[in-house]
Prior knowledge:
The protein is of the alpha/beta class. It has 14 helices and 13 strands.
Amino acid sequence: MDASQFAQPRILNQPIYQPGKPISHVAREFGLDPAKIDKLASNENPLGPSPKALEAVAAALREVHLYPDGSCWDLTGKLASRLGVGRDQLVFGNGSNEVLELVAHAFLGPDTEGVMGVNGFIVYKLSTLLMGAKAVEVTMPGFAHDLTAMRAAVTPRTRVVWIASPNNPTGTANTEAELFAFVRSLPEHVLFVLDEAYAEYQDRAPDLRPLIAEGRAVLCARTFSKIYGLAGLRVGYAYTRPDIAALLQRAREPFNVNSLAQAAAVAALDDADFVRRSRESNRAGLQQLTTGFRALGLPFVPSEANFIMVEVADAAPAFVFLQKRGTIVRPVGGLPNHLRITVGTADQNERCLEGLRVFLTLQ
């Protein structure tokens, strides 16, 4: 008997997340030298990992025969002090993706709804559908979250509203005032999730901690994968009300954050110089790419993150063409004329722009 005959029906229709193509795959597919491939597909830090994090991982390797601290005690204390929140307000995950899925486990199920932008991070939809809930996708004029339309989409069945700011894949962001007004308009039975994966790249990111202190149902998720350069270690977190955090702890697997990730994250929080350099490099890279897009006559969406979305009439062949030249970018689901390009080093950005220029001349 085929296993699908006794699987849960919702699993049979569950979409599968498609990550950016790894360097090794592209090297094999096109016969390229892996050392000469630029991966600008997954919004990773082109400067690499935090040096302080690397030192901490090297020291922590000596104890990998032991289970990690299931409570993330040291990391919890460091972040609680940094954020000015209680230990009982923090939840950690195997990347912030797991934290988002914990939200779905705790609050979504059949006969409930999750509201999200149609061009929002696909994990919101995947997590909602996985729990058997309805994914309500709201249009995004100008590729930005329309908070008025999202509020209108909230019903008595809504349990979670998902928003990323800056948004992945579009790079757009909502202001603090907009988010405050939106949250205060929501009914008590709705949890507002703000995905802050790229907030460290903003000059001034919205701060929703006052709303949490007011008792609002707000959860903010962050990650060490982006500006701290720890994507391969998978560690993220959320801060929220204590009662909401307690529910997510019930859904969390034990030992979900490994010991190397915990050590790296603790050290990375003290690497202010690396964060500053990463932000400055990203700002310069965004300027380099936008200047290049204008010179090529390519429309783009202004971004506040470490990636940018550009419109290319033939995005699918452009995606393949760039890979053959050693530059991996990301096609955008639901937007077939767009590519999302991670901000790389100056040399990587230039190679990407040159690849686009050559592609356009051949059309």
